[in-house]
Write a structure and sequence with these properties.
Shape: rod-shaped
Largest sheet: 5 strands, mixed
Strand order of the largest sheet: 2-4-5-7-6
Low-confidence stretches: 1-11, 373-380, 424-432
Oligomer: single chain
Mean pLDDT: 81
Distance between the termini: 6 Å
Strand content: 5-15%
Radius of gyration: 38 Å
Number of helices: 15
Amino acid sequence: MLLPAPTQYPSPDALILRRDRAERILNGLRAGVLCLLGAAALAYAPSLSPELNRANVLLLIPTLLWTIGQYVLWYRRPGLPDWLSLANAVIDVTAVTAIIGAYAIAESGVLALRSPIFLMYFVVLAARPVASSVRRAGIVGILAAVEYTTLVVWLFATNRIAPVMNPMEAIFAARVSPLDEAAKILLLAIGGMLATYGAFWVEHLVLESSRESSERQRVATRLVQAELDTLKLQLSPHFLFNALNSAIALIGSDRLAAERMVAELSDFLRLVLSGSMEHEVHLERELELLERYVRIQRVRFQEKLSVQFDISDEARRALVPSLLLQPLVENAIRHGIGPRATPGHVWVSAQRVGESLEVEVLDDGVGPSPRRSRERSRGTGLGLANTATRLIHLYGDNHEFQAGPREGGGFAVRLVMPFRLRSSPAEAEPVVAA
């Protein structure tokens, strides 16, 4: 998995995704509730007046069509329209107010205000924390209180309700007490405030979680980057130690060859240090380094060593881990060709295969069994292990690393990694996988 570069502030994408999912679930619940209300309206239809039945039809059918229409219009999209969560809440609150008002017009204000449909206001408010922002939750809470207050004032002002101040007397006389209605308005206001605070709390928790996740990613990226740097730094001393040992061995027998090896080694190290800050470079540059390294080894092995290249033009432009080829070829020469009494060959190839880059380093040396005993006795073999670990850190599971005996004798290393090109300076940053 590729780790994105952390930003200073957490992205709201996680919060938007959660609200989108919540709105989809709420719309399904809305459809279920409307179907239940429709079934109840049908069941009570014979005992209700034509006016009440007409009010049920005029309110339930458009609301149900709007709910179902959302599935047709937007649910195939990856995200719902941003305005939909507010629109649905406004429609729900207004629908509840309209039903209460319709009942008051069709029958009586007392029946309308005592109807259990009033509780639907709180159902709408309860859904706001998971589906709305703080501002939208506040708007819906205010809207519910204002609409119901306006409805109650209108009913009292038009004398559709005969008020009784004493709540107990209002119950026995089948009337409405202004005190009861004021208490209901107060409860609506409190419900709106709780919904707004709930939306704030949910938003705070999600953003805090996103911020902590971003920080964890930042720390993980730095740890992986530090480990990559450590692995890469291991290669240069490892190679330098081996090259200097070879130069020292030549001083007594061929001083001019030792001097030539030291000069080639100086040029090689200059190239290595010039790109020491990069974790990925073009394969063309790796081949340039490798050719210098091969020249160093030919000073020592002379005609005993033959290195052949088969690199496609397209592969030369691909990005590969820096110092990828040199440890593999060094492993082939030192542990495969070196122990041979006769001349040996190393083959290096790189080709693009689909969206991958395939790299192979083959030799016809002594094979894996003598190689392993030689590595144990000298404490070597760092090149292969280091390369495998670096590939894991850079590409995660999106790579292959195979090393083992080759048919016909010798040893083979095969690497498969993503084929990538550096098309802009912004892509110069290394890709780190977790």
